[in-house]
Design brief:
Rossmann fold, alpha/beta, about 425 residues, 7-stranded parallel sheet, binds adenosine monophosphate
């Protein structure tokens, strides 16, 4: 379907052309007409589907009619990176209009955000905590909000934001259009939807299943050899841009240091870094100045980074859903990608669950020439108490014997794009 068929205000075609969109994605085809009619929407859409434009275009269309210079649309999102990303989409799509948007989130000074509101930003893209602060201080006025978007609602629930989200909903007018997007619907999100939406149109785009363009592989490895295996993998695998996930912030930093020491071009993204560092890391990674980014799950959801060739789970995530979100960072928009996951014997249950969801066994790989038999170094008193590490009150389980399923696709490293 072509964008001209939506009967959008002609001023929006400037931004659509600028964004380079030619035909609408399935979620846009389903959501835009309903949203233009003023319907509330519940969307089950994986990121990478064009979800952002699906709610941004109807909002811009609505705002082109009516008063200017007051906040009339509010988009609530769990992370600062997502807020920036959504705001970037708004800026492009609103290029032919004079509508203004602003991001509202913590970790940076409130001054510029307050100025943007005073200057009449019609669209606010906000994380819950800072928005509530600015509402309480009288800087952000919610009384003219006509459109409310709750993005990544399940993530907001996971992060403990639902009480804040409820406060925000209580602060905006009852008479409004609401769109809620969530990849999964735990009971709490269902309740939130039931309380905040009126006769919503349900739009489900793809079940919560990994993108078909991604090839998955498990790398059985004892916990103490993960870093050595990672370096071997990075050294030999043909990669363009690699996103590595660790379970904790401290482990992300450790792995970041190890990769850096090996002479590779790496950055990191996690919540121990300042907002400025987070923005610089993501920008550098998106723009190809860093080939590798080590992140905690903060980066797992919704981030739109083009052409990530590999996602490596240094640690298995906690849930199958988290796995799907992490590896959803690669294989986007018809591109292909690889998802490598390091697994220890403790991960067997989750592997079985993932294989059930994917309907097929995930192949196990080994790296030829890598010595899997190196014993764990003796633990000092200060050693970590991570999963699988001795000192956590129980002896370590023996590492699984790696099984080789087919030839490992390793070859000389190609020059970077
Ligand atoms: P999202 O799911 O909103 O994060 O979007 C994923 C990516 O798809 C972004 O890079 C968008 O710019 C891009 N995109 C969204 N809609 C379209 C479209 N109709 N045609 C081409 N690319 C699109």
């Amino acid at each position: 379907m072509n964008f001209t068929q939506f009967n959008l205000d002609s001023r929006l075609m400037v931004g659509i052309n600028k964004a380079g969109y030619e035909t609408a994605t399935p979620i846009q085809e389903a959501a835009i007409p309903a949203a233009l009619r003023g319907r509330d929407i519940i969307g089950t859409a994986q990121t990478g589907t064009g979800k952002t434009a699906a709610f941004v275009l109807p909002i811009l269309n609505k705002l082109l009619n009516g008063p200017r210079n007051a906040a009339r649309a509010l988009i609530v999102t769990p992370t600062r990176e997502l807020a920036d990303q959504i705001n970037d989409v708004i800026r492009v799509l609103a290029a032919g209009t004079r509508l203004k948007s602003a991001t509202i989130y913590g970790g940076v000074g409130a001054g510029p955000q307050i100025s943007a509101i005073r200057n009449g930003a019609e669209i606010l893209v906000a994380c819950p905590g800072r928005l509530l602060d600015l509402i309480a201080q009288g800087h952000a006025k919610m009384n003219q909000i006509e459109a409310l978007v709750l993005d990544e609602a399940d993530r907001m629930f996971d992060m403990g934001f639902l009480p804040d989200v409820r406060r925000i909903i209580a602060a905006v007018p009852k008479q409004r259009q609401t769109m809620l997007f969530s990849a999964t619907f735990p009971m709490e999100v269902e309740q939130l939807a039931a309380q905040s939406l009126m006769h919503p149109q349900k739009i489900a785009m793809g079940i919560s299943r990994p993108a078909y363009t991604v090839t998955h592989a498990l790398y059985p490895v004892p916990q103490h050899l993960k870093s050595a295996l990672l370096l071997a993998l990075l050294k030999h695998t043909d990669t363009n841009s690699v996103l590595i996930f660790t379970r904790t912030r401290s482990r992300a930093e450790k792995v970041h240091r190890q990769i850096k020491a090996a002479g590779l071009n790496v950055t990191s993204l996690h919540s121990d870094r300042t907002q400025g560092q987070r923005q610089a890391a993501l920008k550098g990674f998106k723009e190809g100045r860093h080939d590798i980014m080590v992140a905690t799950d903060i980066a797992a959801r919704g981030l739109d980074v083009e052409s990530i060739s590999h996602v490596i789970n240094y640690d298995m995530p906690d849930t199958a859903d988290a796995y799907i979100h992490r590896i959803g960072r690669t294989g986007r928009a018809q591109k292909t990608g690889d998802a490598f996951t390091f697994v220890t014997s403790e991960d067997e249950d989750l592997i079985k669950k993932l294989e059930r969801i994917m309907g097929a066994p995930i192949k196990r790989e080994t790296i030829a020439g890598f010595d899997y038999t190196v014993p764990a170094p003796p633990k000092s008193a200060s050693s970590g108490r991570g999963r699988g590490a001795p000192g956590g009150g129980r002896p370590p389980r023996p590492a699984p014997t790696p099984k080789s399923y087919g030839k490992n696709r390793l070859g000389p490293r190609r020059p970077k794009r």
